[in-house]
Each structure stands twice: as structure tokens, then as C-alpha cells.
Amino acid sequence: MRHLLFFLFLFLAACNVSEINTSPPEISNTQVVKLEGGLGVVSLSLPARYDTSFTWIHYSDCGAPCEKRKYRFQPKTLPVYMETGFHYKPLNDSIEQFTIVHNPYISPDDSDKTDNKDFIISFHDHKKFYITHDPTLRTIKWDTIEKIGDRYFSVIVIDKYDSAISAYSKKLLSTTTIKRGTVDFDFELLSKKKDSLTENFIDDAKYYLQTIRIEKSNK
User: For this UniProt entry, which residues form the secretion signal (predicted)?
Assistant: First the structure.
């Protein structure tokens, strides 16, 4: 009986290993983003459907310290919406996007320390506290800290049904550091449909997150 249980354990372990997704969940392209201000160059894989990209500064009425440079990829079939502190009315449906966010005033002359584990651990705890006290977010389904490429990332997943707008809201929110600033890599979906795209969105986002690589910029 012991031998039978032992071999059963090995069989189940082998099955779990084979389920690890090492190939793109759909037809994908490598995208390259040169961050403004000489901060670096980001490359990652994204669905080929994300065929529209744009960048802008999300201005705020509190001034430069609150402003954010954003780079977004999304399908061209969905509405283009660029958030700003002066005119902000979030969409209630039809959102599927990937966004890179950073402060536009990080000095490009600062050294880029990839050994950022201690900072990310502290940042991760503060971000979880903020999310759980934000009435629009509240519930964290899953979170972790992991090393992707040469640096550590804070990763938080929010996966819920928003009854106020009758839509499924899914977010994978990740953050790392470049030079002396934080950079967010956020995958977001908002849809009234419960289809395969909605069901697989978080797992697919986890795959694409693992493809992120950050290199120095030649300015």
C-alpha cells in the first residue's frame, strides 16, 4: 500500500509539472517600450490583438509629484480612454488593457539597483494595505513577491464581480523599481461577458508578466 501511495504521489507531481504554461496562451507579439527620460527599455510579449498603443501624461491637480507617464496597449476595437486628474470618468465596460506607469520626473542619472528585494517587500505591504482600504477594490484574491528577469516585483491580483455595474473586474497589478522610482505593469479587464477571455484573463496575464525584461537605455 505504501508503494502504491508513493507512485501515486509521483504521478500527481508529474501531472502538475506538465500543467505549467510555458507557451503563449494565444498568438502574441514582442513589444518594446522605450521609457521616457532615459529610464530604460522594456520588452515583453502581449497578445497580437493588442494592436493599438499610445502614451500620455496623467496630469493631476496636486502638481508634478502626482503626475504619471502612462504607456498603454489594447485592442483597437475597444474605446481609447486616457485618464487625467482634470477629467476622469472611468469606463463601466469593455476594458482590456496593459499599462506601464511611472513618475515622469525620475532622474535618468540615478543608478539602477536591481537588488530591490527589501524595498519591494516593504512596498508590497503598503500597497496591500491601501487596496484593502479602498472601497472600489477591497478584496485581494492572490498576491506574491517574485523575481522576474533581474529584479523583484510586487504582484497583486484582484478578481471580483462588480454588482454595481454588473461586470467582471479583473486586475493583475505589479510593481518593480527602475533607478529611484517605482514602475507599474498593470493588466486590467472589465467585461459584462463571462466567456473564455474573462475566465482565463488572470492566468494569461501571469504568463505575460513573466516575459517582462528591463534593459538600460542609450538615451
Answer: 1-19
